[in-house]
Write a structure and sequence with these properties.
Elements: H1 22-40, H2 67-72, H3 81-90, H4 113-124, H5 132-135, H6 138-152, E1 159-163, H7 166-181, H8 185-188, E2 194-199, H9 206-212, E3 220-223, H10 233-245, E4 249-256, H11 268-282, E5 289-293, H12 307-314, H13 319-331, E6 340-344, H14 345-348, E7 356-360, H15 365-368, H16 400-438, E8 442-443, E9 453-456, H17 461-466, H18 470-486, E10 495-501, E11 509-515, H19 524-546
Parallel strand pairs: 2-3, 2-4, 4-5, 5-6
Antiparallel strand pairs: 1-7, 6-7, 8-9, 9-11, 10-11
Helix pairs in contact: 1-3, 4-16, 6-16, 10-11, 12-16, 16-19
C-alpha cells in the first residue's frame, strides 16, 4: 500500500494556515491544552477539599506501568486525529503542575507568561543557535543576557553559554578549569595528576561530571562544611595542601552559591583568600579555577553593589528577610574574583524549563572549551562571523530559552528581579509564621538563607515504638501523601529529606519534610490550609498504620531532593 506523506496537514475541523504561522500553532496549542485539561483533570479545577484558592491540583494523575514493558509495546503506525490528542494528553500523566499554588515539592516556580510566550514563539519559528548565519540575533541576545547578569557582580566583560541545566553549567566550568591548568589536554587528553575540590554540601552530580569528562569521580574531593553550611577554611587549605603533597594539581574549587536544602552558601571572599594563600605559600605559577554553583542563588546578585539599598527604598523588607539578604550580600562579596558562575532561570528566574547559563568573567572559555586548535580573535565577533558551535557541547541549540530569559530581564529589570527574590523570602516567612501559629509541626532550618522550609512531623509515640524507626514511619507517611497527589487530587505536594542535618549539624540527623514556597501569591489562608491538610492526613495515616493497612515493609527511597 502506498502512503502519501502530507506534512502539516491539520486534522478535520482545524483551519489550515501556512506552517510558519504562529497563529496556526497557537490555535493548535489551545486545542491540545483544552483536550489535556478535559481528559486529565476530571473536574479537578473545582475545589475538592475546600482549598482557599482556585488553582489546579499540583500533579496530573499518574498511571501505573513498567518502563520495559511499556517500551516493548511501542507501535509505529500513524494515529487518527482523536487518538493523536490522546497521545498528547498521555505525555502529561503524573507530571507536576508548576502553575498550582500547592506544588511545593521543589523549586519549580510558575514561569512568567511573556517569557513562556516568547519561548514558544522562538520554537515556532524553529531558530537554531548554531551560528550567526542560522540564528539571527539570538546569539547576540545570548551574550547580552550573560553580560547583564555578569555586570551585577562587576564583570564588565562577562560572556556565557545558554544551556539545558545546572549540571551542564558545572560541566562547562570544570572543562574550562581543566583546559586552563593543562592546555594541552584539549588535544592530548588529561594527564592524570589533576583533582577538583567541591563543598561537602555541593550538588551530588559533580562526581558524575568528573567521570563524564574523563577526570574520574575519585578525583573529585569533597571539603567538609561548618555549622553555616560553608566550606571550612581550614579543611579547604588542608585539601589543597594534600593535593600538592601528592603531586596533584587542583584544577578547580567548586563553591556553593545556594542549595535546595539549607541554602548552603560559601563565603566567596574567604574561599578566595584561602586559595590565594595556598598559591603564594606553594609558589605556584597557576591559581585553581573558582566556580560558584549559584544556579539558585544567582537571583540575589541583583542586591550587590547597592542593589539591596535600592530595593529597600521601594519595598518594605521585614527584619528576618533583611537579615538573610544582608548575609547573602556578604557571602557573595568576593564573587568578582571568581572565574565563572551558574544560573538557572527556570528555578529563580521566572522562565520555563530548560533555561540555564554558564557565565564567565571574560571570553577565555571560548578557547578553553574548544578543540585545542582554533583560537578566537576579534574577527570572530564581526558581523556574520560568530560561531557558537566552536565551544558549545551541542551544535543544534534551541533559541526559546535565550529569548525567554531576555524577556524576563527586560520586562522586570534588575530592580524587578530583586523584588521577585524578596517575594520568595517573604513567602518563606509567611509559611514560617503559619507553622508557629498552628503549632502542629516544628521548623528545623531556621538558619537557612533561602526560602525553603524544612520541618518535623510529630508522629504518635505508639507508632514509633512499634516500627523499625522514625525514618520508616516518615517514609511511609510520605508515600501515603504522594499516593493522594499521584491520583490527581487537590492536596499539597511536598517532599521528604532523609538523613537531614538540622542546621548543618552532623550530630543532629533526622528524617524531615520539605516545603518550598515558589508561588508569590500564597495567602495566610493558603498556608493554613496546606498545614491543616498535612495534619489531617497524618491522622488518617496513623489510624491506617495501626490497622496494618499500610503494610509492614519500609519503602526503598532515594533522596527525592538533594
Amino acid at each position: 500500500m502506498s502512503v502519501v506523506l502530507k506534512r502539516n496537514n491539520p486534522p478535520v475541523g482545524v483551519k489550515s494556515r501556512p506552517s510558519s504561522s504562529a497563529l496556526a500553532m497557537t490555535e493548535r496549542l489551545l486545542e491540545f491544552d483544552e483536550y489535556v485539561q478535559g481528559l486529565t483533570s476530571s473536574g479537578a479545577w473545582v475545589d475538592k477539599r475546600s482549598a482557599p484558592s482556585i488553582t489546579p491540583p499540583p500533579r496530573f494523575a499518574q498511571r501505573h506501568f513498567n518502563f520495559l514493558d511499556a517500551v516493548a509495546d511501542t507501535q509505529d503506525f500513524a494515529l487518527s486525529a482523536p487518538d493523536l490528542l490522546k497521545e498528547v494528553a498521555r505525555f502529561f500523566n503524573g507530571a507536576i503542575r508548576p502553575h498550582s499554588k500547592y506544588a511545593l515539592f521543589n523549586i519549580i516556580a510558575e514561569p512568567d507568561v511573556d517569557a513562556t510566550a516568547a519561548a514558544n514563539l522562538a520554537t515556532a519559528y524553529n531558530i537554531n543557535c548554531l551560528m550567526e548565519g542560522f540564528a539571527g540575533e539570538s546569539l547576540l541576545v545570548e551574550q547580552q543576557v550573560a553580560r547583564t547578569v555578569g555586570k551585577w557582580v562587576g564583570w564588565d566583560s562577562a560572556m556565557g553559554i545558554a544551556c539545558s541545566g545546572g549540571k551542564i553549567t558545572l560541566m562547562y566550568a570544570i572543562r574550562a578549569a581543566l583546559s586552563r591548568i593543562t592546555p594541552h589536554s584539549l588535544i592530548n587528553g588529561l594527564p592524570g595528576d589533576t583533582v577538583i575540590l567541591c563543598s561537602e554540601g555541593g550538588h551530588y552530580c559533580v562526581e558524575h561530571i568528573a567521570s563524564q569528562l574523563g577526570l574520574g569521580s575519585a578525583n573529585c574531593w569533597r571539603v567538609s562544611t561548618n555549622a553555616q553550611g560553608q566550606m571550612c577554611p581550614q579543611a579547604l587549605l588542608q585539601a589543597l595542601n594534600k593535593a600538592h603533597e601528592q603531586g596533584k594539581k587542583v584544577a578547580a574549587v567548586i563553591c556553593c552559591g545556594g542549595t535546595t536544602i539549607n541554602f548552603n552558601c560559601d563565603d566567596t571572599r574567604e574561599v578566595k583568600a584561602v586559595v590565594d594563600h595556598f598559591v603564594a605559600m606553594q609558589g605556584l605559577s597557576y591559581r585553581p579555577y573558582l566556580h560558584l554553583d549559584s544556579v539558585i542563588g544567582w537571583v540575589y546578585f541583583t542586591l550587590l553593589k547597592g542593589g539591596l539599598e535600592r530595593l529597600a527604598a521601594v519595598c518594605a523588607i521585614g527584619a528576618p528577610a533583611m537579615h538573610r539578604l544582608k548575609t547573602l550580600c556578604e557571602r557573595f562579596a568576593g564573587i568578582g574574583h571568581f572565574d565563572s558562575f551558574g544560573v538557572d532561570f527556570h528555578k529563580t528566574g521566572m522562565c520555563p524549563y530548560n533555561n540555564s547559563y554558564f557565565i564567565s568573567q571574560d571570553r577565555r572559555f571560548m578557547d578553553e572549551l574548544g578543540d585545542g586548535h582554533y583560537k578566537f580573535s576579534d574577527k570572530d565577533f564581526d558581523k556574520g562571523q560568530f560561531r557558537a558551535y566552536r565551544y558549545t557541547f551541542e551544535n543544534s541549540r534551541s533559541a526559546g530559552a535565550i529569548l525567554a530569559s531576555w524577556v524576563v530581564l527586560k520586562k522586570y529589570g534588575r530592580l524587578g528581579v530583586s523584588g521577585y527574590a524578596l517575594q520568595l523570602q517573604h513567602a518563606r516567612d509567611a509559611l514560617t509564621e503559619a507553622i508557629k501559629r498552628q503549632g502542629l509541626f516544628t521548623q528545623v532550618n531556621d538558619l537557612t538563607l533561602g526560602h525553603e522550609v524544612v520541618f518535623l512531623i510529630p508522629f504518635a509515640p505508639d507508632l514509633l515504638r512499634d516500627s523499625d524507626s522514625h525514618e520508616s514511619v516518615a517514609k511511609q507517611f510520605m508515600q501515603h501523601c504522594w499516593d493522594i497527589t499521584n491520583a490527581g487530587e487537590m492536596f499539597p505536594l511536598f517532599s521528604i529529606v532523609p538523613h537531614y542535618r538540622i542546621n548543618n549539624d552532623p550530630a543532629r540527623i533526622t528524617t524531615a519534610f520539605l516545603l518550598t514556597p515558589c508561588n508569590t501569591e500564597m495567602t495566610s489562608d493558603d498556608w493554613d490550609w496546606v498545614l491543616a491538610q498535612i495534619a489531617q492526613q497524618k491522622e488518617v495515616f496513623e489510624t491506617a498504620y495501626r490497622q496494618r493497612l499500610e503494610g509492614e515493609s519500609m519503602c526503598d527511597f532515594e533522596k527525592p531532593i538533594r
